[in-house]
Design a protein that fits this description.
Layout: H1 2-27, H2 34-44, H3 48-52, H4 54-84, H5 91-116, H6 121-155
Helix pairs in contact: 1-6, 2-5, 2-6, 4-5
Length: about 160
């Protein structure tokens, strides 16, 4: 029985690693927000002296982004609490969450703009190419992982596919 678990456990670990690696590359340094992805690509093509100047930008924005993230977490908790308490109308909580997420997005985009504005045109072009390549890598990694799971299911005789995500 223990040997029978090796393949599924290994497959899950490989899939998770591939998925997170591809996702991380495609999304840059800061998560799934497009501004942060742009920032990651811009940082990757910066010279050493440009990177040294980032400390000031990051220290200036750190508290703002931390507050924004706390506001998003709080708004999510408020929404979950309302749902779990049986509330039939959670539109105000959803609006609060949307507002908090929008502010976080704006502040992340603002920081990305500050970082990317330090680049010259050749660097910006290289950052765009990098971003496009990593986005393609992410899509390919997800598709390949999905294919691996489908192959594994087919090999075990499981007719259920993962196309319904």
């Amino acid at each position: 029985m223990k040997n029978g678990l090796i393949f599924p456990v290994t497959a899950v670990v490989i899939f998770a690693g591939a998925l997170f690696a591809g996702y991380g590359y495609a999304q840059g340094f800061g998560g799934h927000h497009h501004g942060m992805s742009a920032m990651g690509s811009c940082i990757a093509v910066m010279s050493s002296s440009q990177k040294a100047n980032l400390k000031q930008t990051f220290s200036t924005q750190r508290q703002t982004l931390q507050t924004d993230r706390q506001n998003v977490a709080s708004a999510k908790q408020t929404l979950v609490s309302a749902i779990l308490s049986g509330s039939k109308d959670v539109s105000s909580q959803e609006s609060g969450l949307a507002s908090a997420q929008q502010q976080l997005q704006k502040d992340e985009d603002s920081m990305a703009e500050q970082v990317c504005s330090q680049l010259g045109s050749t660097q910006l072009s290289a950052a765009q190419t990098l971003f496009n390549n990593l986005t393609t890598l992410h899509a390919n990694t997800r598709q390949q992982a999905k294919s691996y799971f489908q192959q594994a299911q087919a090999a075990t005789g499981n007719s259920q596919s993962q196309t319904e995500e």
